[in-house]
Amino acid sequence: MAQVTLRKVVKNYEGTPAVRGIDLDIADKEFVVLVGPSGCGKSTTLRMIAGLEDITDGEVMIGGEVVNDVPPKDRNIAMVFQNYALYPHMTVYENMSFGLRLKRVARDEIARRVENAARILDIGELLQRKPKQLSGGQRQRVAMGRAIVRDPKVFLFDEPLSNLDAKLRVQMRTEIKKVVQKVRTTTVYVTHDQIEAMTLADRVVVMNAGRIEQVGTPNDLYHAPATRFVAGFIGSPAMNFLPCTLESATGGLQLRLTDALAFPVPQARIDRYRPHQSKPVLLLGLRPEHITDQRFGATANQHAFDVRIDVIEPMGIDTLVHFRVNGTEVCGRVAPATKGEPGGSMPLFADLDHMHLIEGESGRVL
Amino acid sequence: METSTIGAVRLPAAARRTTLRKLMRRKSSIAFLLTLPLITIIAALVLYPAFYSIHLATLNKSMEHFIGFGNFEFLFKRDTFWMVVRQSVVFAVSAVFFKALIGFCVAHFVHNIPAKGQRKWRGMLLVPWVIPPAMSTLAWLWLFDPSYSAFNWTLEHIGLARVSWLGDPNWARFAVILVNVWVGAPFFMIMYLAALKSVPEQLYEAAAIDGANWWQKLWYITLPMMRNVIAITALFSLIVTFANFDIVRILTSGGPVDQTHVFATWAFKVGIEGSDLPLGASISLFMFPILAIAAILILRDISRRGTEA
Amino acid sequence: MAARLGSIEGDRRKAMIWSYFFLVIFVVFFLTPPVYMLITSLKSNAEISAAVSPWWVMHPTLENYRELLTSSTYLTFFRNSAIVSVAVVLITMAVSIPAAFALSRMKFWGSATLATGVFLTYLIPETLLFIPLFKIFVFIDELTGIELVNHWWVLVILYPTLTVPFCTWLMIGYFSSIPRELDEAALIDGAGYLQILTKVFIPVALPGIIAATIFAFTVSWAQFLYPLAFITSADQLVLPVGIITTLVRGDVFTWGQIMTGALLGAAPPLIIYAFLMDYYIAGLTAGATKG
Question: Quick check: A102 and B205 CB within 8 A?
Fold first, then answer.
């Protein structure tokens, strides 16, 4: 069984905290993605699992055993680096078999494993080439091959797609998912790209400034973010945050955005939000896909309002409309055929069934 | 078509062609002019003398008659000559070997300490290379002095016997090699340090995960990645050490009894001090085959690296 | 939070301690001769002959320094060395920079071969050339009466053979690493080739130029063979040879003065090194890593 458990793991670099105490349980064969902005501690955490960084405090367990003092080669892990870290003077075959050769594994066993991995990754004809003769995508596959050959308990990926161009990244993302499905091993994957996180993960761990903000399935994080950070990090274009106040209105509560504009709070949420009426700083969180020009089925919670357009960005599948509410820039998504000009006005609907109310000071989603 | 665009103006086709051609000629004539001093210096003061030395070697002592291979035959019969050959080769090979070894080890030590401190240590360690060899050899001469040697004083103090550093032929050879290694090892260290730093850290991490211990990392990663620098530095140094003059001249003047002569010092003694320039030239010429082989190897290595990058 | 010594950091710390240990040993090995030079230079002749403790000065004295710095012979050596070195540096730069510019930027027929050729000449040692050069210079001297032997300016003619090939090669490397877009931007801005050289290349390649200058100066200052072969009169000698030939009178070595002379003679390169260490090292490593 290859579960990975982190208990109160802390990492300090000469007094500067990089990881401030995180707890995480990764189940056997689960694909977990650590995601967050630069400097949030995700790579450090991964490297502590790998054994490439010492653990200042806390415990890391792999397969139920504490591995804090176990060197990387004995942890039964394999790692795919951002820069592939292929040995430039060795052929692809030698690169993939290096670890096995060091362990003095029998030659035919090595051949069997390498050819098996090569088949999964479709790099069979590249085995005798050197890394400098390979393209970026091929090198990435060789790096994965090196990891597969070790038959590890845990796969670790450290931003493997960051060095590839946009198109290749999308391709390789799918490749990685296919490979991991074939090989069925516990995987911890680090990236700063939330799209990668959402598409690849069984569960996503959002990190910020050395702490875990939220752990959940991609869907959970998208629909029910726990903090403003997670709400703003997941989803592209990012969620809109509009400062507002909560006030009483006929039939319940409403969110006042400007003197002229107020959104009614959906009935189902009135009881939940009422205690927070007196809070001075509140934010309305609404994703661009929920500010649109069509009605999603007929619910009472779609509120119509007019906006003055700042910028229009046609993306083909949608058109993004940028406008301002009380100085805050807001983005909405409308059908591509909708007409609009900068400076003109456009009628939009805010789908308040999908709204989030966020406490300004703590960032907590209410 | 790549052309200089200084003041290029749109002219009718035919006129454009001649203007372009004139411009091209101008560019290459400017270029030629710029390199002319360089070519002159090299042609007049390096190439010409090099070839002239061949001619010189075929003359007799007073440089009036042509004696063909006479000088060479004379040398081949002399024991001193063969001793000089052996000494030059042994001297060069062992000195370069130890310089490379020490340079490699010290580079590793410097690489292992935190980056902030590296500069200080590197600065101190390069000092032997910075001091003009003539001056530092004088210091070594004083350290090896037959009567006042500080080393001998120390040896006696701890109960060991004095050593005749420059009087005994074997110790004299050791001394010459030691001084050469002392002067040259820092150069190797600097080169190797630069090369060590260029090996990506992630390769070592991948190797750690693959299960390599420290000497496996050295053997499978460090050395192969540094192969080019190691080869080039060694070849350079072989050439320079083989042709070394200062150290032997100052330390032993080739003695005792010609036992530490190398090509350069013996050529000087015979050619300039002995006023037999042709014979001196013939001695110098024997350095040429070895230098040529080393130069070819270096050239091949450089062009290979050029295509590899 | 207590840091537990796990495998990686523990290993690194052990490696570090061993490294410091060996580094100290090697620093002692490398610095003993210069330190000993200093110690000896502070001793009086009497103390040296007494030979009580070679490694320490009992009665330090600046007598040696005073004598040398007021000795006209020594000062002449110093002056000659300085003049020759500075002159050679200027000549070297005047030859190398334009040549490197032409060879790296202006592709003309034979430029690649010439560049390799330049590099190869660096491999021809002075110990091969000094004898034919001596003969040639003596010959020209006898033929035309231009004194090409036994004068310090002879060195100014000879030393560039040692400095120009390497400096050119060094500068070619630096110039090649300047992106072509810079030339093109300058051309669009209306600069001619000469202006590109002076206003774009030289400022951008300044580190390389400084490194080459240091190299040329250090090589000229330290040269021993050519002065030994070509110059015999004391008033034309340069430092390395001067110290040896004049401070060794017959069989009597006045070691205090010799060491002082050697130390003072080693001072200029050492001072340049101390202040410009990074450029110095850049000049060396450019050799191997720029290929």
Answer: no
For chain B, what is the domain count? 2
Nearest-Å Rg of the Cα atoms of chain A is 25
What pLDDT does B24 receive?
A: 55
The range of the structural domain enclosing residue C140 comes to 62-289
Domain count of chain C? 1
Tokens at residue B242, please? Answer: 């083989």
Q: Look up the CATH number of the domain holding residue C225.
A: 1.10.3720.10
Average pLDDT over residues B234-259: 85
**pTM assigned to the model:** 0.80
State pLDDT tens for residues B296-308. Answer: 887 777 666 655 4
Instruction: Report the residue from C123, C128, C287 with minimal CB separation from B284.
Output: C128
- Quick check: is B65 in a domain? no
CATH number of the domain encompassing residue B155: 1.10.3720.10
Whether residue B61 lies inside any domain: the answer is no
Query: Which numeric CATH code is attached to A240-359?
Result: 2.40.50.140
CB contact under 8 A, C98 and B136: no
Please tell me if residue A57 touches chain C, with a CB cutoff of 8 Å: yes
Q: What is the rounded CA–CA span in Å between residue C277 and residue C263?
A: 19
- Across B189-267, the runs of DSSP E, i.e. the strands, are none
Length of chain A: 366
Q: Give CA–CA dist B200/A272, Å, rounded.
A: 55
Residue B101 — φ and ψ, nearest 5°? -65, -50
Domain boundary among B28, B56, B84: B56
Best mutation target, B35, B104, B227, B277, to test chain C (most C CBs within 10 A) = B35
- pLDDT of res. B177: 93
Q: How confident is the model at residue A36 (pLDDT cuts 50, 70, 90)?
A: very high
Q: Is residue B172 part of a domain?
A: yes
In this structure, are B33 and B152 located in the same domain?
Answer: no
Residue A20 near chain C (CB below 8 Å): no
Percent of chain A residues topping a pLDDT of 90: 42
Phi, psi of A127 (to 5 degrees): -60, -30
Domain that includes residue B44, residue range: 1-56
The answer as to whether C53 is a domain residue is: no
Alpha-carbon gap, residue B106 to B186, rounded angstroms: 9
Helical segments of chain C, H only: 7-41, 45-50, 63-70, 72-105, 111-122, 126-144, 152-158, 160-176, 180-189, 193-195, 202-204, 206-222, 225-230, 239-247, 255-275, 277-289
- Work out the average pLDDT over C52-73: 83
Check whether residue B11 and residue B132 sit in a common domain: no
Rounded to the nearest 10 degrees, the angle between the axes of helix C126-144 and helix B287-308 is: 120
CA distance A15 to chain C (A): 9
Would an 8 Å CB–CB cutoff place C59 in contact with chain A?
Answer: no
Q: Could you tell me the two tokens for C196?
A: 């590109």
Residue B196 included in any domain: yes
Touching check for B136 and chain C: CB below 8 Å? yes
Residues B249 and B127 in one domain: yes
Query: Which of C 7-26 lie inside 8 A of A, CB atoms?
Result: 7-9
Supply the mean pLDDT for chain A: 89
**Which of B200, B202, B211 has the CB atom closest to A102's CB atom?**
B211
CB A328 within 8 A of CB A239: no
The answer to whether C5 contacts chain A (CB < 8 Å) is yes
Please check whether residue C202 lies inside any domain of the structure. Answer: yes
The third-level CATH classification (topology) of the domain covering A4-233 is Rossmann fold (3.40.50)
**Hey, is A284 helix, strand or coil?**
strand
Query: Cβ separation of A54 and C2 shorter than 8 Å?
Result: no
Q: What is the pLDDT of residue B2?
A: 41
Domain ranges of chain A: 4-233, 240-359
Q: How many A-C residue pairs are in contact by the CB < 8 A criterion?
A: 32
Question: How much is the ipTM here?
Answer: 0.86
Return all residues near C190 (Cβ < 8 A) that are at least 6 apart. Answer: none
